[in-house]
């Protein structure tokens, strides 16, 4: 038989009269309850809701059935507006590009003061179209929202935590590599020495490897074709750059340059 629930609010929520009366099937989940609340309160999507019992016990797992959590017909529950939310994927991508900007200002030391004019259009297409537009549509869209992932393994906290940990390690590895390169070159000079330390002991261009790894983490986390395409294009371009840098290292340092892979540890 249906479950009839009375929903009160904790804190201010505009746009609806409380208490709400919500009727659900007897096998309804917390996620279905949130859907019912969202239908009645337009400004309260499921991502902004925190559902609690009268004892202030949170019903946090959207996949759990209400009856398994001890909720019975006639019970009074409470909803709190958590405020505007930002998706995990969007947060990771924005942090990635913020890091890139800060590194450009404070870390990178460039060999040349200028760049070819064509590179402006090539780089802009890569970042504005493949990243800015394609990933925005394919990754930041509601397809990857909490409601869309209900019941899927991609919503597993363990899965998400694993992807985030890989992303964080890749970002820190990339930063470490850039700092090593910065310290090799005194300010205002073009002096270049053999980089050592970190993943440089295994490959010539660990910064590119870490960059690819961070986007692999985003791709796996979202299972998005847009993210996959961006990752593949980026990896292809960085592999070309890595081959050139590896050859330049070997040509410049010849017999003193240690035996290393080019970009991917143990592989290439």
TrEMBL record:
This is Tsc13p. Pfam families: Steroid_dh. One of its GO terms (molecular function) is oxidoreductase activity, acting on the CH-CH group of donors. Belongs to the steroid 5-alpha reductase family. The chain crosses the membrane at residues 125-143, 158-181, 216-243. One of its GO terms (cellular component) is endoplasmic reticulum membrane. It is a multi-pass membrane protein. It comes from Malassezia vespertilionis. The lineage of its organism: Eukaryota, Fungi, Dikarya, Basidiomycota, Ustilaginomycotina. Residues 1-79 form the Ubiquitin-like domain. Keywords: Lipid biosynthesis, Lipid metabolism, Membrane, NADP, Oxidoreductase, Transmembrane, Transmembrane helix. It is found in: Endoplasmic reticulum membrane. GO terms for biological process: very long-chain fatty acid biosynthetic process. Its main location: endoplasmic reticulum. It comes from the Eukaryota.
